[in-house]
# Entry
Amino acid sequence: MQQVYTDTFEHTFDEKGRITVPREWRGEGFESVLDVVPATEGFLRVYPGSFFAAKIQQLAGASFEDPRRRVLEKLAPLIQRVKSDEQNRIMIKDKLRKEAALTKVAVLVGRFDHFEIWDAAKWKSAAVEDASFEQVMREAGL
# Structure
């Protein structure tokens, strides 16, 4: 069963740049290996390790000149692979925290198949608070 990430959680980074993965996201299907990538909008996206592994596996037999492979290879230097420790924390490198302008307090936002890490102040200004569940369901055609 694949892990589903929902809800939002406020957590703090410790002095080593570690942040705890919420207990609610560590149930059945939780992968302790995660891939962290910067988003151009100023936050981090975090995917289960199997997400990119599946994409790479699709290209395993492709030649080095295959355009799909060349595009996928451009992602490799941008991804930080992390493994949660015994306390279920992941360590985010300084470089990525700075790119996303993350301070000590962060908000982890579930996005079903991945989650995002936002600076708490930036999340508060970017979050859509006025939308109701019913409104969003209608907009999604559900």
Notes: Residues 8-139 form a domain with the Chemotaxis protein chec fold (CATH 3.40.1550.20). The chain has one domain: 8-139.
